[in-house]
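Run: sequence + zinc ion -> complex structure.
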Amino acid sequence: MKNLIITSVISLVFSFHSFGFQNVEQVEIKTQKLSQQVYLLQGAGGNIGILTGPDGVFMIDDQFAALSEKIVTAINQLSDQPVRYLVNTHHHGDHTGGNKNFDEQGALILAHENVRERLKEKATDSTAGVPVITFNDQLNLHVNGNDVMVLHVHNAHTDGDALVYLPQSNVLHTGDTFFNGMFPYIDLSSGGSVDGDIEAAEKGLSIINEKTKIIPGHGNLASHQDYSDYLLMLKSIRKNVKKKIDEGATEDEIARDESITAMFYTDEVASDFFIDGEKIRRTFYKSLKK
Ligand SMILES: [Zn+2]
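>> structure
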């Protein structure tokens, strides 16, 4: 238990630092209404999607455990119903850290089967917060008058990513397969890959339309254009890195070569990102070399 707490604190500090937050007290949960029943909540960590209605609150991702109380307070402003369903877009702690708290409050947790495996491994003292309903390819729910499509995309940001699309409300939550306004984090050590991330964005764009409101894993609410630009960025960086590899460039040479990525964000601009210019170039190199 002690180890668990220490690990949680370390990952909390690490992630807060990475996204520019110093402590829990200072985190404010901001709510943005996207449609009649759907809201975006932003605090620290991954973006949260909320679908309200008579069947209970349907929630997408839950940030860190330390923020659960604040998140519940924000949800209570939107609905007098409890959180009944919680879907995790992937296993990372800044998206699933609150699982145990929401589980204990009665939420049913759903995720891709690889997310369950990874969270089960981490859960040392109890299985509270581990997803109880899993899927392999796709899961459809019908709650609050909305069809909810949960689609697995293979080896994108991790090996357990899901896109969550609500066609009636016309909102898509991409999880971390889309970072808006910055370079993405592609977790190669958890089964992520550049080609999978590209395919995930292609898949997402293929099911939505021009008017869809897109909740990225990180960054502000996005438009179809933002999402298309992101896909173009991934494809362009892939092409540039591939060309350098074919010319015989080493990982370090590619990591130092700002011209590969500067047309999107210069290294100076990207120095504030979780993934800076050098890191994104190394990621693409490693993923394409695999
Ligand atoms: Zn993530």
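>> summary
The longest helix spans residues 224-246. Residues 90 and 133 are 14 Å apart (CA to CA).
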